[in-house]
Hints:
- This protein is an alpha+beta fold.
- It has two domains: 2-36; 56-245, Umud Fragment, subunit A (Ribbon), CATH 2.10.109.
- 22% of the residues lie in helices and 39% in strands.
- The chain is built from three helices and 16 strands.
- The strands form four sheets. A seven-stranded antiparallel beta sheet has the order 1-2-16-5-6-14-15.
- Strand 8 (134-137) and strand 9 form a beta hairpin.
- The radius of gyration is 27 Å and the shape is globular.
Amino acid sequence: MMNMTVQMQRCRVGWSRIDLANTIILEASMKLWLKKNRGLLIFLLCFGIFRTSMADWNPIPSGSMRPTILEGDVVLVNRLAYDLKLPFSNYSLAALGTPQRGDVVTFVSPQDGIRLIKRLIGVPGDVVEMRDEVLYINGVAGQYSNGQDIVEPVGHGRTMPGIKTTEDVAGSERMVQFLPNIPAKRNFGPITVPADQYFFLGDNRDNSADSRYIGFVPRNLLIGRAHHIIVSADIKGNWMPRLDRIGERIL
């Protein structure tokens, strides 16, 4: 019985020594790996800080900003357009610019935290209203011109008739489109944009989950201003690159 106890103790000591040796080998391997890949780790850290505080790019998965931005576009975002933020956070270290009506902005949804891209329609103090698709800013109706009929892809090989037109309101002009056959909020307001918050709409007015549904967006949730398309592919069709869209400015 005593011999068995001694043997068990010796086994425990042996296993402890093996565990210690394995730990030493693992630590040595980790130190060696860190030493060999130090440059890569520094690059990845700097790259992460760059993407979260200075510039970023965002692939577009949905059609809420058609006809301005298409599914499959990758847009370049200036993260320093409005605020210098602490990397990997929404905390602003310094205000660098004022968001303007008409800016195309990426932001974090106040509803579910998903990153969105929409057009800035109302700034703090603005009174925003929509009547039968016509946008009003501070009581002045938008002007619509150059209307044309379109056939809009809506997924699964289906299409839908629509109208594309130029919208000019409150000193900001852009192309927007309407899809009359889709249920949407075509009337709302008037509502006043609160201090330090913003009101957004998608250019694809009848197919966009924007401030009509998610509410106002606080400034600290703004990420940056999208200003150019850096690459594009037809992800709803043949996945071929759309070379004519590369480098296109977002208006």
